[in-house]
Amino acid sequence: MNLNWIKNRKTLAAILAVVAVSCSQERSPVTGWAYNDATNGGFEKPPYEEQETGPGLVLIEGGTFSMGRTETDVTYEWNNVARRVTISSFYMDETEVSNFSYLEYLWWTQRVFGPTFPDIYYKALPDTLVWREKLAYNEPFVEYYLRHPAYRDYPVVGVNWLQANDFCAWRTDRVNEFILIREGLLEHVPNPSDQDYFSTEAYLAGKWQGQLKQKLPSFDDQNPERDVRMEDGIFLPKYRLPTEAEWEYAAYGLIGNTIAERITDRRIYPWNGHGVRNSTEKYIGQINANFVRGAGDYMGTAGFLNDNADITAPVYSYWPNDYGLYNMSGNVCEWVMDVYRPNTLQDADEFRPFRGNIFTTQKRDSTTLIGGLGGEILTNVDGPLYQKFTHKVTNPSIHGTNAESDVVEVTDSVLTVLTKDANGNNNATPEGKSDIPGRVQWREVSSAVSTDNLDERRNYKTADYINYMDGDVNSSIYYADGEAAYADRGDKMMYEYAKTSLVNDKSRVYKGGSWRDRAYFLNPGTRRYIDQRQTAAWLGFRCAMTRVGSPVGLGK
To answer: What letter would DSSP give residue 241?
Structure first.
């Protein structure tokens, strides 16, 4: 018998089998190699259709619209000059965040961090004292509004801009945790600790300390199993506050007045017409929103209350706009991401306009080059930004000490770096960073760090662009004095904060009218601002999420 023939025949059969398998696999259009094939390294192309809609969200199909003033500027601030811009598709909460949803957040925070880091819980609490007025009896709202079940479906108030962002970060992690549990990849842990609660960013950075139920199969024969990656499309993007442009675009809901590419009717409010009452035959004459109809008239006359609400109303009250969003005018004003400047609408890009960019990157350690977590001590790499701190304080707490400079707290191997804010106070949550144990820490990009490569970039040269074209040296009357003179004057350069204006880098825009506003502020184009650390009984928020991929999805 010819053994060589048999051997060659077996070899040929093996080759034909590999070819047959390879022919059934999708191949790279640039190299010809098959995807998802362990015999050539196992480069994967996971199955993916489109972005899943997160809990509570509705898709806002993007497009172009005229942003800014649509009627007489009765305040004469001229801070909302009309300009045509384009907004990408995104997701937005159907309603404002309710008291009950915020209580869920507080309950989770107390359960996870309460035993070891109670200040994290206290930092998340809304300010219920916002209801107090010098010459009004509002004490019942102070005591009952947040926690009594009668108000559970009412919008949460007394939450500042920083707290709203913390809520968005918590919501992102809880939603992605639920997705992994639903897909059978993660063990459900009813009582996570501050050391092992699920963090999306920490998981993707390979630093999460919890336990998986199982991993995904891998086509890499050297690593047959792997964690979920960004490339799998399983995780949802971050929940966040909407930008001012996104909020205004969504509030108008002009998709209901569009035929082909033609917007047939502009809107003053989120509904059609010049009035504030419903014009449909079934509901004719009923108020469309919760606001102050006139001096001293917050809800109308007994027997026929015009908006049926003395303060706020349940988040599903009145009629949604054509995107299906409730209370985009009235009820409560809402935080947005933007830093306030009066000229932003004239200066910002016409595509996805926004003011407030501070470009950041994950902190890295010297060994793994993977993002550091809140509570980790980073080793000294790339100069002073990564100094190893060893300072210890007596009876440390998350809210800092009386140290004159930046302070460091060490508690049970958890380290938190606190910075001073503009007023010299300890700031437990610097913007863009995380002081919560287990979360990835971020830092501003810097020309002092060689790996940031700012000298080689064309689109940006520094981290902070809040003052770009409106508050920086180039837009200042002191431009001729140069950068040095401008730096000495600090944030009092143009707007002279606390002297001639209340505008600084912590002034955040809020949109929409509230239960305490007149009809003029129901117009989505109106702009107002308040310090990001302040709260009010008429100010709440809702979350948004970026839409990735197609602006319309498989539905169209």
So the answer is: P
Rounded to the nearest 5 degrees, what angle is found at the Cα of 290, between the Cα atoms of 352 and 148?
100
Q: Is 64 helix (H, G, I), strand (E, B) or coil?
A: strand
pLDDT in tens, 362-381: 887 654 444 456 654 333 33
Higher-pLDDT residue of 394, 91: 91
Rounded to whole angstroms, the Cα distance separating 56 from 323 reads: 13
Angle, nearest 10°, between helix axes 161-182 and 99-113? 80
Query: How much is the average pLDDT of 507-523?
Result: 96
Residue spans of the domains in the chain: they are: 20-49, 100-148+163-215+222-237, 360-459, 467-504
Q: Which of 442, 386, 381, 441 is nearest to 414 (CA)?
A: 441
For 337, the 3-state DSSP assignment is: strand
- Which pLDDT belongs to residue 395? 33
The pLDDT, as a whole number, for residue 482 is 65
Q: How many CB atoms lie within 10 A of CB 408?
A: 20
3-class SS letters over 451-516: HHCHHHCCCCCCCECCCCCCCCHHHCCCHHHHHHHHHHHHHHCCCCECCCECCCCCEEEEECCCCC
Alpha helices in 317-468 (DSSP H): 344-347
**Residue 456: burial class (beta carbons within 10 Å; 0-12, 13-18, 19+):** exposed
Question: Is the model's pLDDT at 548 over the cut of 90?
Answer: yes
Residue 468: is its pLDDT beyond 70?
A: yes
Q: How far is CA 249 from CA 24, 237, 245, 255, 520, in A?
A: 46, 21, 6, 10, 18
Task: Kindly report the backbone phi and psi dihedral angles of residue 280, in degrees, each rounded to the nearest multiple of 5, phi listed first.
Answer: -75, 150
Contact between residue 219 and residue 42 where contact means Cβ atoms under 8 Å apart? yes
Give the separation between CA 210 and CA 186, rounded to whole angstroms: 9
SS3 of residue 217 by DSSP: strand
What does the mean pLDDT of the chain come to?
Answer: 83
Express each pLDDT in 13-50 by its tens digit: 444 344 444 446 899 999 999 999 988 888 999 999 99
Radius of gyration of the chain (CA): 27
3 state SS of 36: coil
CB 442 within 8 A of CB 363: yes
Measured in whole angstroms, the distance separating CA 507 from the mean position of its chain's CA atoms is 17
Q: How far is CA 339 from CA 161, 234, 257, 416, 422, in A?
A: 11, 32, 31, 27, 16
Q: How many CA atoms lie within 13 A of 48 on its CB side?
A: 18
58 pLDDT more than 70: yes
Alpha-carbon span 158 to 128, nearest angstrom: 6
The single residue listed with the structure tokens 């801070």 is 79
